[in-house]
Amino acid sequence: MLVDRRHGLGGHWLDANPFVELHQPSAFYGVPSLPLGADRVQVDGPEAGWYERATGAEVIEYYARVRRHFEASGRVDVATGHRVESDRHARAGDDVVIVESASGTRRTIRARKAVVDATRIAAEVPEGRPAPFDVETGAHVITPSNLPHAVGGSEYCVVGAGKTAMDVVCWLLANGTDPDDISWVRRRDGWFMNRAYAQPFEQSPRMIDYQSRIVEAAVTATRGRDLAEHLEQHDMKMRIDPSVEATVYRGATVSPFEIEQLRSVERVVRAGSVRSVGPGRVVVGDDVIGLASDAVVVDCTAPGLSRTEAHQIFGDGRIDLHFTTVGVAPWGAALVGFVETLDRSVSEKNRLCPPMPRSHTIDGQLDMARIGLAIDGVRREDPDVAAWNALCRRNPGRSIPDHLDDPLAATAMVRMFEHIEAAMENLQRVAPAPG
Ligand SMILES: Cc1cc2nc3c(=O)[nH]c(=O)nc-3n(C[C@H](O)[C@H](O)[C@H](O)COP(=O)(O)OP(=O)(O)OC[C@H]3O[C@@H](n4cnc5c(N)ncnc54)[C@H](O)[C@@H]3O)c2cc1C
């Protein structure tokens, strides 16, 4: 049984703004048993030649289809509009109370095999939460969902430096706003992955190229930013303003076209966090930034990905979901489901699915690289997992073996083999595993 307090399946996508899209190709997203989209290559626009990305509306429609597919199979019951009330540590065999939000009706259910808690890594979007700063009477603060209804102000102030803020700035520019009419509060700058290197099928050699450059840089890197700067030299990682030290990395994937657009906004405020917004002003750290009296302030400060600490995934009669693959959430979730079906001990399952740390800083990427490279080897050596991975629709690297004779892939493989041992040695030294 699947229980969710939201009115439908799709999680945070149900609340997100109307112009949100997957930041990676649809081919990497959703459940393994149903395709999302048709793996079309875009024929026009700034991403011509790259694989399609679903809009938020398409993701929601997709999960409605997933729900019908599973319910029709008779294998899954879905209780949306229900919140789980029982203690967070319930396991198989325990009574779990679920409450229908609309009616208040309570039911007790009991899992036979495992209680799966997917809430600790839940994503957080700006919608449905109060702004994390004071909003004085007369100030016009909105979430991105309300932006299409709020156009017409003479000035916009975007607060936040992540993917949502970037989407909002791109949307404003695409809808005719003059870059000089946008001010952008970016507490810290971030690194972003170039979407050209997150493409499936015949374009997957670029993914190996990307991996090989990480391995190459990891031979001598002492900080995560060494990896990022090396990838930047190969146009694989980007930042909006290369003259500013970027410290954040949360896995957002963008195109060089978007980065170019974002660079046109020159009124960037880096004075710290927004403390309050009043009519015609924003207080950022110790600075007061003057705005037009009808300025619209767009709150894009929600963290998106959860900030949950890494925790063990498999327990006795319990699964606490955490990210266990680098970058692509649905593949990791599907892998946890597959590993649960194997006849293995809890510790063996945890060995196959260690939690990926979410440091959110570029320097945390050394840790991520060490765990990511090590677990890749572990999964390749496990015959069940390797066989599943080779077929799983959501494994972004599934097509790589079909394209190893591509010159880019061949060169990248040589680079990888040449450096992998020294890279692992260095990573163990500069980002040792705890304990
Ligand atoms: C804007 C945005 C774009 C993204 N794009 C991509 C992408 O392109 N590719 C990618 O791989 N990842 C992407 N991600 C990352 C994100 O991790 C994935 O979208 C992932 O699918 C999130 O799913 P989730 O189930 O972990 O979290 P959520 O979608 O947040 O789902 C958690 C669910 O738990 C429910 N819940 C919480 N507490 C309770 C309770 N007590 N009782 C009942 N229900 C409860 C909530 O209602 C919610 O529906 C994106 C994230 C964001 C925010």
Structure write-up:
The chain is of the alpha/beta class and 435 residues long. 31% of the residues lie in helices and 15% in strands. The chain has eleven helices and 20 strands. The strands form six sheets. It has a five-stranded parallel beta sheet, covered by helices on one side. A four-stranded mixed beta sheet has the order 7-15-16-17, with no helix packed on it. A three-stranded antiparallel beta sheet has the order 3-4-5, with no helix packed on it. Helix 4 crosses helix 5, helix 4 (205-218) packs parallel to helix 11 (407-430) and helix 9 (365-381) crosses helix 11 (407-430). It binds flavin-adenine dinucleotide. Flavin-adenine dinucleotide binds next to strand 1, strand 3 and helix 7. Flavin-adenine dinucleotide (FAD) binds at residues 3-6, 11-12, 16, 20, 22-24, 29, 83-84, 118-119, 121-123, 125, 304-305, 328-330.
Summarize the structure.
With 435 residues, the protein is an alpha/beta fold.
Give structural attributes.
alpha/beta; 15% strand; 11 helices
Q: What summary fits the major beta sheet?
A: 5 strands, parallel
Q: Portion of residues in helices?
A: 25-40%
**H/I helix tally:** 11
| Strand neighbour order, sheet with most strands | 8-18-9-10-14
Rounded average pLDDT = 95
Number of strands: 20
The Rg value, from CA coordinates, equals 23 Å
Structural class given helices, strands, pairing?
Answer: alpha/beta
Choose one word for the global shape: globular
Q: Hey, roughly how much beta strand do the residues contain? A: 15-25%
Low-confidence stretches: none
Bound molecules: flavin-adenine dinucleotide
How far the N terminus sits from the C terminus, by CA atoms, comes to 38 Å
